[in-house]
Specification:
The complex is a heterodimer of chains A (253) and B (330). Chain A has 253 residues and is mainly α. Chain A is 77% helix and 0% strand. The mean pLDDT of chain A is 89. The chains are: A mainly alpha (253), B alpha/beta (330). The structure holds adenosine-5'-diphosphate and magnesium ion.
Amino acid sequence: MKATEIQAIYVMWLRQMKRFIRSKSRLVSSIVQPLFFLFILGSGFRVAIFEGVGDYLSFLAPGIIAMAILFSSMFTGISVLWDKQFGFLQEVLVAPISRISIIIGRTLGGATVALIQGVIILLIALIMGVHISGTVGLIFTLFFMILIAFTAVGFGLVIASKMEDFQGFQLIMSLVIMPLLFLSSAFFPVTSNPTMKAIALFNPLFYMVDGLRGSLIVGVETVNSPLFNLVIVVIICIFMMSLGSYLFSKTET
Amino acid sequence: MNIITTNNLTKKYTDLIAVDNVSFSVLKGEIFGFLGPNGAGKTTTIKMLTTLLNPSKGSAKILDFDIIKDRDNVRKNIGVVFQEPALDTELTGGENLDYHARMYAIGRDKRKERINAVLKLVDLEDKRDIIVKNYSGGMKRRLEIARGLMHYPNVLFLDEPTLGLDAQTRRAIWKYVKKMNKEEGTTIFLTTHYMDEADYLCDRVGIIDRGKILIIDTIENLKNSIGNDVITLTCSNINTLEKRLVNEKWIHNIKIHDSKLTLGVEKGDEKIPLIIEISQSEKIKIKSISVRKPTLDDVFLHFTGKTIRDHDNKNNVESQPRFRMRGGRK
Ligand SMILES: Nc1ncnc2c1ncn2[C@@H]1O[C@H](COP(=O)(O)OP(=O)(O)O)[C@@H](O)[C@H]1O
Ligand SMILES: [Mg+2]
């Protein structure tokens, strides 16, 4: 790869980082919101006993981490729409750099931001007494986090390329993402109900959450093995990134 | 030497032809302007020349590089200041310039030096570490111009560089444009719908209306083409007088507009008695008459049949103004 393309990737990455650090509200809300979920759901459901779930907080923590990474990365993808409306996209598109570098840089930037958030929540969960697994598990965890981030940026890019404004985004959040998230076993197990389990098998988020849970937590029961989940998630990720990049590269302003 | 050459450049949208078989060339070192009303196709032309839009037909070259086949080289050789601001408002002015320089592969030392130089050119040296959202509209525009120059482009595109700015800021921008044209030898392609802007800045002007170029020439030749002097008069029975005068050899052109009759002639003051004589013989009463040097407004009226204000009024009635995120530059 040419040095100029690496510079371009770096610039796109750096820009995401700077914007994240400077946007205090995003910084705060991206961490506070998952923590709310963790505390409220965690203490609310602790008394309820889900079948096959040991410590509920340990069950919930990976779900919340997945959710935080998902939202943050989707936001990065969709923020292309901001760049389009605020004109900055044109500045990038007339520069002598390839579209693919623009996407790689942005994705890496978004993923870095999401990973920072994920790790912060992980640390808080640790303090709260969640039992996490050893080195191998953590390496798997990292893979899952990165893959979730990339997939969500790709999905955000798809939405941004297909939409002209932000209203559609609200619709997709409440009609697609939230239901998928609830049916992904992020907050409660789906195995107790056969219908829900059958639906989960068609839910991409299910493999992400199940995989993250299996890698991160010791002694938790998951539906699939982490390795199996990983393979599925890699496939989903490649598909989503390719589709997002393809649609973005077609962008005219 | 030609910096820009276009050949029947055309852009069709589903319901209209925004740019219609446009051919022209821009010479090295000149300030070339597209003058035309809203919706004439100026921005569309710039977007094609800067590789953001694919032409439907025709071709264009920047230097020797084809805008479709050789985009990368085209992009390396141009700077663009878009009609709509294109800055990252969450970053500082300095960061905007620095990121730009990196995308154009300018090395670290050169980068620092160049940032200082372009900021100096537009008098923004002391605003470098301020986040752009705290800039005024005029400062943003200056920063964009500075950014367009960062990588020593052969040609700088300026799409309506002073749209929506106040008079004082506009004059300041004009000064910078002249300065960079002179000091850095940058060829400039600009679009505008302001007569005074084209008049003040441009060496040559192309008048564009409804996607077509009506004429291209130097400002001076354009003005002379409609006669050395312009006579404007109001009278009773204006249509009769027009019919009577339209075939006079000494009148280069004649138009009724806003219930005024406008004539392009040579030696205007000698023609006034003649006109009065003719109208008296037709029993037409002249209410007022004056002679002046032609302006670009007269030229525009002559070639498009309307003043630019008519165009804009008509456009405002016909189409809703498109959504703009950042109206009200100051
Ligand atoms: N994406 C588009 N789709 C359809 N029509 C467009 C599009 N962009 C511009 N136009 C139309 O093309 C014409 C020329 O537009 P434009 O080049 O922006 O004019 P100018 O910059 O001279 O004001 C206008 O009538 C405008 O409405
Ligand atoms: Mg325009």
